[in-house]
Design goal:
The chain is built from eight helices and four strands, in the order ααααααβαββαβ. By secondary structure, the chain is of the alpha+beta class. It is elongated and about 90 Å long.
């Protein structure tokens, strides 16, 4: 007489029948995944070629989709293999830092495509890729504010700071002191601003008594509204 435990084990193991994974299914799955991986490759190149394009990351990302799809197929074929892969993948540590959040999005897109295709859900992978592409390029068209600049001033007289800030406010509605460094030779001041006429601002600040050095630098921080 079969107990509930025996019935559960039998039904659970039947879900990992290797006969369901045929050569034809493997070829179709890997082929569809490869096509979608190439599509992700092209989208990444198009979206990042104007900023910072990393070719090695793009190639690796496309191949990750195919590798993930193969792993999912192997995990479906045999219970022992699936448990072994879970244990093996759990000890993998990736030490390469992803600096751009956009790269993280593409990497997650590639991995999820491999998982979905490996689970034989090609329509979901295709439709999700189209939706992601449309959303990506539509959001890229969203207008954002202009990034602020950093005005670096070296002056002999710290008491001239108020006059300096008033001069900056005449060229920029954004005027915020980010750093003050006081020394025996005077004071170094860093001011965040968004001047419409940077050259004229530099000339105006240089005319202030005691200012012996001034420079205007762009930075890649958050956009100031």
């Amino acid at each position: 007489m079969n107990t509930f435990s025996d019935i559960f084990k039998k039904s659970f193991l039947e879900g990992f029948n290797s006969g369901d994974i045929t050569t034809g299914r493997i070829l179709v799955t890997l082929g569809v995944t490869a096509v979608l991986a190439a599509y992700i490759f092209i989208v990444y190149y198009t979206a990042t070629k104007k900023t910072f394009y990393n070719k090695s990351f793009n190639i690796s990302m496309a191949l990750v989709a195919v590798i993930t799809s193969a792993i999912i197929l192997a995990m479906q074929s045999n219970l022992v293999i699936s448990l072994g892969m879970v244990g093996a993948l759990s000890i993998v540590r990736f030490r390469t830092a992803i600096k751009d959040p956009m790269d993280l999005m593409f990497l997650f897109w590639s991995i999820s495509t491999g998982i979905i295709c490996g689970a034989n859900m090609y329509a979901i992978a295709l439709l999700s890729s189209l939706v992601i592409t449309i959303g990506l390029f539509l959001l890229e068209l969203t207008p954002v504010g202009r990034a602020a600049s950093l005005l670096i001033v070296s002056m002999e007289k710290p008491e001239k700071e108020e006059e300096l800030l008033n001069a900056v406010k005449g060229f920029s509605r954004v005027c915020q002191v980010k750093s003050r460094n006081l020394s025996e030779g005077g004071m170094n001041l860093i001011v965040e601003c968004k001047p419409a006429k940077g050259q004229e601002l530099l000339v105006k600040v240089k005319e202030i008594e005691g200012v012996f050095g001034v420079s205007l630098m762009a930075h890649d921080g958050e956009v100031t509204v």
